[in-house]
Amino acid sequence: MPVRSRQLYEARAKIAKALAHPVRLLLLDALRDKDMCVMEMTKLAGLDQSTVSKHLAILKEAGLVGVQKAGPMSVYSIRCQCLDGFFACLESVLRQNLKEQQALVELES
Amino acid sequence: MPVRSRQLYEARAKIAKALAHPVRLLLLDALRDKDMCVMEMTKLAGLDQSTVSKHLAILKEAGLVGVQKAGPMSVYSIRCQCLDGFFACLESVLRQNLKEQQALVELES
DNA sequence: GGGCTATATTCGCATTCTGTAATATGGCTA
DNA sequence: TAGCCATATTACAGAATGCGAATATAGCCC
User: Given this model, what pLDDT does residue B1 score?
Assistant: First the structure.
């Protein structure tokens, strides 16, 4: 594979990696409803504040969320609309897998 | 976070994780054009056969690709159409990030 | 400035992920 | 059946990731 292509796929993978964690998916999903500060999301996730802060840094680095300072707080917001399609795709695959598993079970019985 | 929700996000994350690697993105992208056997994809990726085989196993486990035996060969194929939207989303975020970086550079000069 | 609050960063440790070499499986053909 | 081919699996080393505790940074109010 040419170096150029490899770099392109690595750039894409960096964004995909940011999406590849249950907590980050939760945070993104929550941010689709409304902007939130770190404390709020820390409660939501039920994890240490430093952990949530790091997850948010990863999302921000990938360009998936934006931050705005409000006094001592950092308010995070969604930065790309296309996530709706991404979540829908995940659901679609999940449903398809479930259907296939059911078909297998019925075959056995 | 309720256990139920956590499990839902973990199921989604499992699929997202399968997407979160440059080589797997390459393979999926290639499979969008045509079905391929392992040897073909091994050449394409320029990696060891065992490595490619493992990446394919991950994609299969996530339900993103399917396999069909053809004699001694395994022919892999895309199993979900919604990947088009996913790739488009990655491109969109990449373009947006690039635009933002350019804006920053212009601000400095 | 001193103390409080909200975030970010660093550190150490456990877990998971990647890639290759070596080995196993399984179909095909002579 | 013996040997060859394509693929899958195992074993293992090195890299990356995830977590919380501790620490650093920075704004705000007295």
Answer: 66
